[in-house]
Structure formats: C-alpha cells, structure tokens
Amino acid sequence: MILVTGGAGYIGSHTLLSLADAGYESVTLDNLCYGHRAAVLKGHFVHADLADETALSHLFETFPIEAVIHFAAFCYVGESMEAPEKYFSNNLVNGLNLLNAMLNFGVDKIIFSSSCAVYGDPFEIPIPESHVKSPINPYGLSKHFFEEILASYEVAHGIKHVSLRYFNAAGADPQGRIGESHEPETHLIPLVLQTALGLRPEIQIFGTDYSTADGTCIRDYIHVCDLANAHVSALSYLLSGGQSTSLNLGTGKGHTVREVFEHCQQICQLPIPYREVGPRPGDPPELVASGDKAEEILNWSPHYTLTEIISTAWNWHQNQKF
Ligand SMILES: NC(=O)c1ccc[n+]([C@@H]2O[C@H](COP(=O)([O-])OP(=O)(O)OC[C@H]3O[C@@H](n4cnc5c(N)ncnc54)[C@H](O)[C@@H]3O)[C@@H](O)[C@H]2O)c1
Fold it and tell me: Does domain 2-170+223-249 have CATH number 3.40.50.720?
C-alpha cells in the first residue's frame, strides 16, 4: 500500500491513476484545503491534515504502508513572499511530522515533490541536477530545505528518498476524468484556456523584453501524466533497492509564453484577449530541464508534446467536473 499525501490535488490525483494502472494500492491523505475529493478516483481516502500527528499515526496503524509519495504542500510563489511562515510551517514542519511517523512505523522509502524553484535564477540551460541551489523565494527554499532534511534522515535513519524536481506541470487526463483545478489559478495554460472560455476577461503576458527569441519567458512544460508515470518509475526504483537521488522532470524543451499562447489559440479556435504588462519580480527568463539523469536512472522519458498538453487541458476545461 502506497501513502499519497496531497492525492486530491492536481499532480497527486493523476498519480493515483498511474499507480492503479501499475497494480499498486494507495491511500490518499489530504485535508482538501486545495484538493478535491472528486479527484480521488482510486484507492482509499483519509481526510486529515499532516499537522495532525494522531491522525497520521492512526493511518499508519490502519494501512500496511510500504512507501510514501509526498505531494502535500503549499505552492504559490507570490504568497510565499508575503507569508513565508505559512510555507515553512506546512512544507517543512508538517513534512517533518510525516517523516517522523514514517520512522515510528518503520517505513523507509519516500518520493518527494520538489521543484525547479530550488535552482533560483539558473546560469546554465538546460539545468543539470548538479546546478547550484539558490532559491529566490520562500517556496523554493522550503523545497530545497526539505531535500536537505531528507538527506539528513537518510544518514541518521536510513530513509531512502527520490526528490523529483518538476518543471511546469500542465495538461490533463486524456480520458477527461480529472484535470487542473486550482483556486486561485496562477499557471499559464489554464489561465489562457479559461480566458478562451470567457471565464476571465483577459490574460496578462508578464514581461516582453527578456533576452529570449520573442521577448517572453521560456518554460519547460511537462504533461501531468508523464509526471505521474515518473512517480511509478521512481517507486519501483526505490522498492527494488535504488539509492537516494534527486531528478529533474521536464522535457528538455522550452517554449516562450507567446508560443504557448499561439498554440492555445490554434487549438481553441476562439479569440483570447490578452494584455502585455511588465515583468513579475523573480521570474527567471528561462527554465529548461536537462532530463538525462531521470532517463538514465529511471529509464523514464516524457511522451506528450506541447500540442497534446494543451489539447488534453482544453478538453478538461470545456467539460470541467470540479
Ligand atoms: N504544479 C506544478 O507545476 C508544480 C511544479 C513543481 C512542484 N510542484 C509540487 O508538486 C506538489 C503538488 O502540486 P499540485 O500542483 O498538485 O498542487 P495542489 O495544490 O493541487 O495539491 C496539493 C494537495 O496537498 C493538499 N495539502 C496541502 N497541505 C496539506 C496538509 N497540511 N495536509 C494534508 N493535505 C494538504 C491540498 O489540499 C492539495 O490537494 C506540491 O508539493 C508542489 O509544490 C508542483
């Protein structure tokens, strides 16, 4: 049985489907502060907060947990600048509760949702895992610190970990069962598609003067189902005795904001009002993953193209269920 914290969220809920397809049983722990009960289509569900040590112990007593996939966290960069305490408390202190429960119940394998935010403003593109870690906001710091905590827990207690540093997750289940439903939404593709549907008056393009081909930021968009499958690969890697490691999960290909916008327009065939505004502080011009290490260690590589990312997301947003 695999414990999935934050399994009612966007990436967690897609991972539950991949786990079930691969024959794993799962139990989700989620407090539903951002997640959706309706997104949990597979496995058991426990409505609880990671801060609740009694509920955590009860879960470990009830289910024979072999390994943990830890998605639960707060993930709004802007909010983390205004309320860092919220981020350190949920992403670190509550994460420690989880690690301590694992120790108490003899569970020694964890896959952790890290982020390309650990690299800050990178000086090398594509970014290798060995790149210096210098996060530029409390959200990125919380991810970097938790990776370091995992390293200490391995030395002291033998807990093995794989930290997966996602780049920009996007897209939806190709069967349209689940998809991205964040409130507030801050990610480019859902914002553009919601604007196409008339749910937002316009989309803002932040910064048109970067030193990129068309002046807008470059990001590496990875399909959520490719991410989900990488978790299953990381899990079988750890269960078969793999060593702790940190891996980038991206496609190795960058797309500018304008390219993404134009792709969306082609797929939706609808007018999408937009406005060009100044750059957001702390937005690096380019974030693109080097994916060599994940391919080598997990024998995993992404399959979905940008067009497939946008069309599965478009299908979801037109028929959104939650
Ligand atoms: N979405 C991305 O592009 C992206 C990129 C890099 C890293 N990440 C990381 O991946 C993970 C999942 O991201 P997501 O986009 O699916 O986010 P999400 O907000 O959709 O999912 C997070 C889930 O965790 C739950 N949760 C939060 N705090 C909790 C707590 N204390 N106790 C129990 N449940 C709690 C929420 O209710 C939610 O269901 C996060 O750790 C995030 O930092 C996401």
Answer: yes
